[in-house]
Batch of 2 targets.
Target 1
Amino acid sequence: MPLAQTSTTVPVVVNDDLCIADKGCTVCVDVCPLDVLRIVETDDGGKTAYMKYDECWYCMPCEADCPTGAVTVNLPYLLK
Amino acid sequence: MDEILDGLTQIDCDILVIGGGTAGPMAALKAKRKNPKANVVLLDKANVKRSGAISMGMDGLNNSVIPGYATPEQYTKEITIANDGICDQAAVYRYAQECYGIIQELDEFGIRFQKDENGEYDVKKVHHIGTYVLPMPNGDTVKKALYRQLRKARINIINRYMATRLLTGEGRVAGAICVNTRSAEFLVVRAKAVIMGLGAAGRLGLPTSGYLYGTYENASNSGEGYAMAYHAGAGLANLECYQINPLIKDYNGPACAYVAGPMGGYTANAKGERFIECDYWSGQMMQEFYDELQGGKGPVYLKLNHLAEETVAEIERVLHIVERPTRGHFHQGRGTDYRKQMIEMHISEIGFCSGHSASGVFVDEHARTTIPGLYAAGDMANVPHNYMLGAFTNGAFAGLDAADFIADVDFASFDQGEVDAERTRVLAPTKRDDGIPPNQIEYKTRRLVNDYLQPPKVTAKMELAQKRFEEVREDMDQGMYVRDSHELMRALEASSILDCADMAAAASLYRTESRWGLYHNRVEFERDNDNWFCHTILTKGDDGKPAHRKQDVKPYVVEIAEDEKDAYDKQRVSATVAAE
Ligand SMILES: Cc1cc2nc3c(=O)[nH]c(=O)nc-3n(C[C@H](O)[C@H](O)[C@H](O)COP(=O)(O)OP(=O)(O)OC[C@H]3O[C@@H](n4cnc5c(N)ncnc54)[C@H](O)[C@@H]3O)c2cc1C
Ligand code: SF4
Ligand code: SF4
């Protein structure tokens, strides 16, 4: 039984123009209590944080601790 | 990151503290200060900097006993009554005596508490009888302040390791088995004493939004504390006394009568009428809430729209920046404004948490569990109505006692077979080629919890739940499948959640009476003081299933007069207060 690819809209968005992951920043990934953020390579060869797993408590340490204000926490669609 | 690696490391420490949320850090600090030579390890599934219920901060201390406002005797009496009499008072009384000292220590850490113009603590009345709520104007700094202290005290912090099982041997605790949440590598920690502060079982029921992580509790608290204690053979008390909270509908955060109440806000029915006397969370209060919803007078609302602009602005300032700072976004998205309309509330999913009830791993006034060397504090230990200051204070008791305990003992030896068995169990979902992902196992378990375990409790429904849980367990054991170590963490959580669901059903079936208002409303049974004025203790039976026994409530330290005992039963307002 192979797994399906069911899409889901994620609540946390990162502005990759502001994100300085390519300078080594991982702050949001480090602080998230649910461990749902990761760093990925962008199309232009840079790096950015993004929400990999839709498992968010909408608690906000990622947004509060980001040094450049790149993270915005929205409410998960199911409850907003 | 996230690939599954094969690895196992073993380390030794004197005291292992599991859970770096609220109780855990205080336990680690106290132990280290008492015995600076001790090697104290604080281990967390998340990152201690931002983990646990107080991750973003707290609005205030819900249960502070401050000289001049309340006495330890008054507090002990109130909590005993709020908890329907089932309370070993020694732990509550010791907390009430010593929590003021902890407040002063927190003050020294840089956490400010609200004072009036005379420089006295500005304590507010929210409870039915006494005055205990102390606001924290810079409550958003609490976790940072705590973290600074941990660094200063050179506590050894290990992040992103999830504890899965305790090790025991020679009749006492021997350590714990932990798994890295980003690599699946194992860490076996040998310890002379273990302190558990893993928080509530917050992912037991499913929120009505259907979003698995939209829980009231911090969603990383998935019940491992209870599951680990159970599998190690510790006693768990009164698990049938669920936690159920009155929350903002869908957002699922506290409506915060504790903040808004003293400023004139209250819980109202659809007509804007007050129907409960006191907004302090108790089972009796939740029963009235439920009756109002079911009785055709709902929805139930948080009512602030009769208050002056400055008051509403002040409430917003507190509620929208500290505890759950996304709350402002939520209201904005819905177009709701406290000034203009009442805010819809509802009843939360069920969970285990002593914060507002009485369930949890059984402990005494030293935070000792029934296993020597094993301690528990905070939301997962059964000291009733703990809240944040209870987590700090009982965490302190655990740390202090553990520092003494390790002085006289060496490591207990344990059976290496336990480690091998746990590795096999943990890694099983990584060995399959396909199967059921953990989110489906979890969703199904929690949906069944809602369908069959949510009060009012019905025997036939709970028995059905047990049957269905067995089927899910079979699926989990034989067919759960994960692709990376992050999913493996979720798989292990699904397993703890299922253990907690089994315990919730078994404990609820055992107590054949109704008690604690809605928390244990068993429709076929009346309250029965003759047979059930006692704790129920759940342990793992020889057949691997929950076993039960009754345990006497210890003689009260603070006597309660006959006519005081039902103070919390009288929650409904007698003549309805008209809406403004
Ligand atoms: C939304 C909300 C609002 C609240 N408001 C107030 C208030 O205003 N005033 C008040 O007094 N109280 C309040 N409380 C209650 C108070 O916050 C809690 O009672 C207290 O913080 C609990 O502390 P704890 O140490 O038991 O749990 P937590 O602080 O939640 O810590 C548990 C820790 O265990 C870790 N953990 C979990 N599982 C594992 C595992 N398997 N391995 C390793 N680590 C693990 C978690 O990552 C976490 O760090 C509130 C609670 C919530 C949820
Ligand atoms: S904290 Fe901000 S800057 Fe750093 S990785 Fe995350 S989004 Fe990028
Ligand atoms: S809001 Fe909380 S759970 Fe969601 S990504 Fe940010 S830190 Fe993680």
Target 2
Amino acid sequence: MTLTRRKFLKAASVAALVVSARPSAGRAFELKGRMSPGPKALQAGQWGMGVDMNKCRGNCRDDCLAACHEIHNVPYIPKPEHEVKWLFLEPYENAFPERSHRFLSKRVREKNFFLLCNHCEDPPCVRVCPTQATFKRQKDGIVMIDYHRCIGCRFCMAACPYGSRSFNFRDPRPFIKKINPEYPTRHRGVVEKCNFCQELLEVGRIPACVEACKEGVLTFGDLEDPTSVVRELLSEKPHIRRKPDLGTGPSVFYIT
Amino acid sequence: MFNKGWVIGGIIVFVAAAAFPFYWYQIGQGKPFPKLELPAKEKRCVESVEFMRANHMRLLDAWRIAVVRDDLLIYTSTKGDKFEMNLHKTCIGCHTSTERFCNRCHDYNDVVPPCWDCHVAPSEIGKGEQS
């Protein structure tokens, strides 16, 4: 038999094609069940919050802050550089460093401001995240962190102009007073922040801080619905947002 | 031909050495499969046992993407049963001990899922500040 080089190459390439074209059978996974939203889930185009600084006392750390941090297993770490927080209080000068509201009433200016993630319209943290762990949910506008994807690079913390994000420099579990088994903790090496209580909205409840505040400071609702409670409040009362000139479009409004 | 005996002998020795893991595996005695603690009252898992055995990790992966990223909550199985897509409430609601169920099988298979670093395993419930 004579096998020319040309014939050999032809046969070899056909054989290679046959081998590589074999279907990768049995690899694909198909979930046959169906998934749907919770029957009682609260829905909105863009969740937003109004914080009435006329009513807020600015010092009762035990209500809104404690309620949030308890249900979300946020650790209390005394060392300031390791601190983890979802909600926090800061004086006016820190919350609004540009101080463009020169004649804001003294009564309001002297209070601590209630701060949290602004769930921005155009969040800079989302743009910089290399793994899409942090993302803006199309459906309800919540800026989420998918902790399963977070690699702890902290780009988002550098990008956030509001200081809303904390990094777990150490294992948070020993610093949690009482672990709530219904919500996972985090582990060392991930970034965390407020999630507008998406796990409560899903089952038809409003955020824990709103529920906990006895003074009625916090109003929560859909910013895209002109008849929602927040929109009605905002159409009546003067309000400010943090660092509006950056163009991030915060969804948290401070009524002054 | 030179050294025919040496060459063939060498080949035999080489093949025997290269195939060592295969027949060692056949001779070696496997660990017995551990006994899993199954839920006492419930009869059915989320999907069929065969499916769960082979695919529970993919199911959980699909669940967490659905809940965290797509704002979904309810899973309707092929049999029509409804479940909340939640590792703690649903899986641990029936398989109440991760040690005597998940971990026994995972130890046998040498798998260490990282889930319990964050999700609260039943044995961790009630624990708190130690420092």
